[in-house]
Write a structure and sequence with these properties.
It is built from two helices and 27 strands. Among the domains are: 145 residues, Ribonuclease Inhibitor (Leucine-rich repeat, LRR (right-handed beta-alpha superhelix), Alpha-Beta Horseshoe); 59 residues, no CATH class. Helix content is 5%, strand content 22%. The protein is mostly beta strands and 498 residues long. The longest helix is centred in the N-terminal third of the chain and has 15 residues. The N terminus is likely disordered. The strands form five sheets. The protein has a 17-stranded mixed β-sheet. A three-stranded parallel β-sheet has the order 4-6-8, with no helix packed on it. It has a three-stranded antiparallel β-sheet with strand order 23-24-25, with no helix packed on it.
Amino acid sequence: MSKPWAALLLVLVQIRCGRGCPGPCQCFSAATVVCADDAMTALPLNISAQVRELIVVASGLTHLDGCSFRESLRLSKLVFLNGQVRSVSGDAFERLPELRELEISGNPWLTLQVQAFGSLPNLTRLMLNHNKMGALDSRIFDSLQKLEMLQLKGNSLLSLPDRPFHRLHNLQELDLSFNQIGSVPSDVFQNNSLLRVLSLQANMIPELPAGIFAHLDLLEELNLRGNRIRNLSADVFPHSLQKLVLKKNDLAQLQPSLFHTLLHLTYLDLSQNQLSEVPANLFQNLISLKKLDLSENRITTLPGTVFKGLFGVKAIHLQKNNLSSLEEGLLTDQHDVEQLYLSMNHLRRVPYGFFDDLDFQSLVQLHGNPWHCDCGIQYLSHWIRNNLRNVEDVTQVYCQAPEFIRGHSLVSVDEERLVCGQNSSSSHTNVTEIPAEGHDGVHCSLRDVKGQATIQCKLTKCTGVKFQAIFEFGDGSESERVVSQEWPAPAGCSNGTT
């Protein structure tokens, strides 16, 4: 289609669907009107009776009151987004009896009168995000008995009033994240027995009162990320939980029975805490668990049975801890693991057969550990070479020791060099000078590092070098194995002899 015809068609669509469309707005559907004009200080008058959704973005409106809607409308959805709304009066929505969804978000320093939502008994969804309200009146939501979803994110709330949600018997989703709430009353959710999703993320809560979730028998998701929680009582979480996020708190230890009743839990995030150890039976009854995140803690060791019985787990994240060793049999029940992250720890080796229970589809992280590339790492080296696709950043799995291969990628080191000598337990390095016959410009030395012998030569003149080694047995007889290699003088060399 040519551009002129396309433009004409667009105009016709706007004329047909937007007949009677308010001046500063766009109407590409008979049911939806979108107004985006920072010069608009009042809502348009000629909104069609067919309109069900009115969306106002970045307008100059500062107040919503009884005069904002000068005619009764059959709106089911109303949105004020990223504007300048400062206040909402008690009669602001009296002409919108059919409203089901209301959002007023991104309007700085919003003030709500107590009866602001008093004329909206049919409202099921209310979003009041990033308005910096600072405080709530305990009666503000009393009339919203059909409300199913309430969002109050980013409003600089320092605390919650006395039982602000006690009349919201049908509430299923509540988001109080990104505020500054320092404490929560134990009965704050007492009448919200249908609640399924609750977020208290990014607040300043130091502890959870006993019984705070006692009445939430249907709660499936609980997000407590980014608070200051130090301790958790064993009976604090409802049995119905499927997803629990405790990331970025101040947890230093956990009671062994903390999660024992969470038989339906599929996702558990304990990352970015202060944990140095994990009780052996902490995850004992988590038979439904799919993802476990323990990353960015201070864990030094893990009990060999800590993951026992987690047959369905798909992801175990242990990166950025202080693990220096791993118990044999740690992964015995983890046949279906798809992600095993062990990077950025203090591991030097893994037990023989450690990864044998993993499926071919597993993705393993091993980089960022000080791998000791001697005979004790032969199993890991062999496993990596046979499972290159399963190791993330495989070329970044470096050897920290012995000294002569420090900084080398493990997969680049010949497996024949992964040996332990008789003196491998000693850290002493023996150095013996080797005379270079006929070449005063060549200085060589034999270095014995933990039983591994290497020869290093340094040229002080421009000269070619021929190296020949004959191996002898302990009785002095020569071996048939002879190594010979010759290197010519570097190109451009002219001040020496060969």
